[in-house]
Amino acid sequence: MGSYAFQALALHNGPMSVVQPVLVSELVFVMVLRRVWIRQHVAPAAWAAVLTVTVALAVFLAAAEPTGGQPAPRAAEWLSAGLVFGGAIAVLAVLGTRGSPVRRAAVLAAAAALTWALEATFLKTTTDTLAASGIGGVLTRWPVYAFIAATVTGTVLQQAALHVGPLSVSQPLLVITDPFASIILSIWLFGERFTDSPAKITMAVVAFAVMAAGITVLTRTSPEDLTPSTPARS
User: Fold this and answer.
1) Does the residue 64 lie in any domain?
2) Is residue 233 included in any domain, yes or no?
3) CA dist., res. 170 & res. 104, Å (int)
């Protein structure tokens, strides 16, 4: 609940194209907690991947310069985005019912990530409605119920992806696809904008690709389970 509350505040106060990519930083905090709290040995390659992800994320945000946006998408935009993303999620969910464990994990993780991106749009709209019309206005409009449905659907799809195949396949797709799809939705629904400089756009694209590569390496080099490497102090 705390996670959703802070995400809602962030989405209400800033562009979705900033908030969703920044959520990638959870991997950095997870790695620090695994070393300090769980007392696991973290390989140097994993720390290098953490540094790569952090720097690439900062470069992406600085170069892309995301800004602007409208608080309330039009009905036609909601309909088109909902049909495209909802259709893609449904197709991927069906494809995830068969095939090898690796293939199923990949497909279901992609479906879950698209759902989380769509869920963020509902959450952002709900917070804007709450600020403008109060709790009564929220309960009489559809985004809050779409948010609840997307949260349940995303959780089911994510747990299915984690269950059927290796984490090294599902986690990178979950973490990378969500911000990428969120950026598309931020432009599509909220009219958010990026820099007009071709050089900066190129730099941002390269930085996002480097960040994705760093996430993949981090997933493959981090400890496989939560077993402490050294016993806890008494």
Assistant:
1) yes
2) no
3) 9
Residues of the chain with confidence (pLDDT) below 70: 230-234
Assigned domain for 227 exists: no
What's the number of domains the chain is made of? 1
Range of the domain at 131: 2-221
Q: What is the pLDDT of residues 177-205, one digit of tens each?
A: 999 999 999 999 999 999 999 999 999 99
**Closest Cα to residue 172, out of 207, 220, 206?**
220
CB-side neighbour CA atoms (13 Å) of 143: 22
Q: How many CA atoms lie within 13 A of 116 on its CB side?
A: 25
**Whole-angstrom Cα distance, residue 193 to residue 187?**
7
The reply to whether 76 falls in a domain is: yes
**Residue 55 exposed, middle or buried by CB count within 10 Å (0-12, 13-18, 19+):** middle
Integer-rounded Cα Rg, in Å, for the chain is: 19
Residue whose entry in the numeric block shows the structure tokens 């800004």: 67
- Amino acid (1-letter code) at residue 7: Q
Residues 72-84 pLDDT 10s: 888 999 999 999 9
For 193, the token pair is 């904008």
pTM for the structure as a whole: 0.89
